[in-house]
């Protein structure tokens, strides 16, 4: 092998010829080339991260350290401490750390640097130490007791780890110290094994005894059945306190005729009694609404209708709407603000001639009431013609009519006023040309003139000279004039 030949790391055969001028001998051996040069490393001092203030997370290549080696170790560098969020705890100040760099051939280089923890105070939140307390029972002073414990302390930096694993809470005031009525400074030291924090608050000692109250269950008033008007002192509640609040008691509901609506059954209500020092007492009671049915008046659902034109049936249409409904208790307030009227029969249902039950449900959002009536469907005839059998012809004397409260009663005329004219009893309509029919009741009365009053129109008999002789009918007539039919009963 030529002198100066370059041999890589590894094993190489070395052959040598030994000779004189006559003889020679060949000798062999092996040359093992190794890398014994340690890595070239540099490292810088670092500061712990703000979110993990007492933990070391390691150096960053090219930022806080360099590593140069022709045969670097693929497993990277190591330290003489445990890194990471669960590693060694670093106290405030600078902590020396050694970095190790080892190449593939076991050559080691070291680098010393410092990890700095900049904390100077325990990173915790101060609990609220302000409080108002009452003097001890029967005494003019309050015996001091700390208002917080270690479990009340929370971290202001979540990634901070307590040195020693926990914190302690130590008030500077001795437990059991007697505090007079007034304001007192309360100082508490919160610490782990390395850092601490001082928290302060104020203790106000005063009369904090709440009022003594009792209250009874009540029922809503009949005239306001779903409104709560409040309790009555000495009747449905009692209030005892040496310093009562002049504004009186309050509730967790709005009372009065325009207040909260109370559904049927028992509703829990809380009464609050607060004295002049802000001491509050509460009392739970129940307000009962005894309603089981919507307090409304059922409209008149009874009616008589005719079959539809040219059909043997009547198409059902509701006879009332929501605005036809009136309250039976004026002080009741509709839940939801209004009522709905819902017939159980589908609109447009075909009803045959006869009598049919009409059921209507009147309801608000909580209560309801069922109202019923009857629909009498008639087939083109008046009620008398459809319900009574035909009457035979019989002579009937003329009548005069007198008015009573309930009906008009026929009375025989005096003999001198009787005229001879026929009396007709008929059960069949008089057929005239008809395209539209209007029905109204016809009574056997002489011609009338009408006078108007506030309540109703009153028929008045015309003078005798204006009365005319006319046939008397006792049934139903269909009279048709100019393409319009009128049913006279």
From TrEMBL:
<feature type="region of interest" description="Disordered">
    <location>
        <begin position="388"/>
        <end position="465"/>
    </location>
</feature>
<dbReference type="InterPro" id="IPR003410">
    <property type="entry name" value="HYR_dom"/>
</dbReference>
<protein>
    <recommendedName>
        <fullName>HYR domain-containing protein</fullName>
    </recommendedName>
</protein>
<feature type="compositionally biased region" description="Pro residues">
    <location>
        <begin position="389"/>
        <end position="398"/>
    </location>
</feature>
<feature type="compositionally biased region" description="Low complexity">
    <location>
        <begin position="438"/>
        <end position="452"/>
    </location>
</feature>
<feature type="domain" description="HYR">
    <location>
        <begin position="206"/>
        <end position="291"/>
    </location>
</feature>
<dbReference type="Pfam" id="PF02494">
    <property type="entry name" value="HYR"/>
</dbReference>
<feature type="compositionally biased region" description="Polar residues">
    <location>
        <begin position="423"/>
        <end position="437"/>
    </location>
</feature>
<keyword id="KW-0677">Repeat</keyword>
<feature type="domain" description="HYR">
    <location>
        <begin position="34"/>
        <end position="119"/>
    </location>
</feature>
């Amino acid at each position: 092998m030529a002198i100066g030949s370059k041999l890589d790391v590894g094993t190489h055969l070395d052959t040598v010829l030994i000779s004189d001028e006559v003889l020679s001998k060949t000798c062999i051996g092996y040359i093992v080339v190794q890398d014994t040069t340690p890595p070239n490393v540099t490292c810088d001092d670092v500061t712990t991260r703000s979110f993990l203030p007492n933990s070391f997370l390691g150096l960053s290549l090219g930022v806080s350290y360099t590593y140069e080696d022709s045969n670097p170790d693929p497993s990277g560098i190591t330290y003489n401490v445990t890194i990471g969020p669960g590693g060694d705890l670093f106290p405030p100040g600078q902590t020396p750390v050694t970095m190790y760099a080892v190449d593939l051939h076991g050559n080691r280089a070291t680098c010393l640097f410092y990890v700095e923890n900049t904390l100077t105070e325990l990173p915790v939140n101060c609990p609220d130490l302000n409080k108002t307390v009452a003097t001890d029972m029967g005494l003019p002073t309050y015996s001091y007791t700390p208002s917080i414990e270690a479990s009340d302390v929370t971290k202001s930096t979540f990634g901070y780890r307590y040195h020693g694993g926990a914190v302690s809470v130590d008030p500077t005031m001795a437990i059991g110290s007697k505090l007079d009525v007034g304001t007192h400074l309360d100082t508490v030291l919160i610490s782990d094994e390395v850092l601490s924090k001082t928290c302060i608050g104020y203790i106000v000692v005063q009369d904090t005894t709440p009022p003594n109250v009792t209250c009874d269950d009540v029922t809503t008033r009949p005239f306001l059945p779903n409104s709560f008007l409040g309790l009555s002192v000495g009747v449905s509640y009692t209030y005892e306190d040496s310093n009562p609040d002049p504004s009186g008691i309050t509730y967790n509901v709005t009372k009065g005729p325009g207040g909260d609506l109370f559904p049927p059954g028992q509703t829990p209500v809380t009464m609050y009694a607060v004295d002049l020092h802000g001491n509050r007492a509460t009392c739970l009671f129940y307000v009962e609404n005894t309603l089981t049915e919507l307090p409304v008046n059922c409209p008149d659902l009874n009616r008589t209708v005719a079959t539809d034109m040219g059909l043997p049936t009547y198409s059902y249409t509701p006879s009332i709407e929501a605005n036809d409904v009136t309250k039976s208790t004026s002080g009741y307030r509709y839940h939801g603000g209004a009522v709905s009227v819902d017939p159980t029969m589908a609109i447009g249902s075909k009803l045959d001639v006869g009598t049919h039950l009409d059921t209507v449900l009147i309801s608000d959002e909580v209560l309801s009431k069922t109202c019923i009536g009857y629909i009498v469907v008639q087939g083109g005839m008046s009620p008398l013609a459809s319900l009574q059998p035909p009457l035979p012809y019989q002579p009937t004397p003329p009548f005069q009519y007198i008015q009573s409260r309930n009906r008009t009663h026929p009375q025989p005329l005096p003999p001198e006023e009787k005229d001879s004219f026929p009396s007709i009893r008929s059960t069949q309509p008089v057929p005239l040309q008809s395209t539209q029919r209007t029905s109204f009741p016809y009574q056997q009365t002489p011609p009338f003139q009408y006078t108007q009053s506030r309540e109703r129109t009153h028929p008045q008999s015309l003078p005798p000279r204006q009365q005319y002789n006319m046939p008397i009918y006792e049934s139903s007539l269909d009279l048709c004039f100019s393409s319009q039919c009128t049913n006279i009963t």
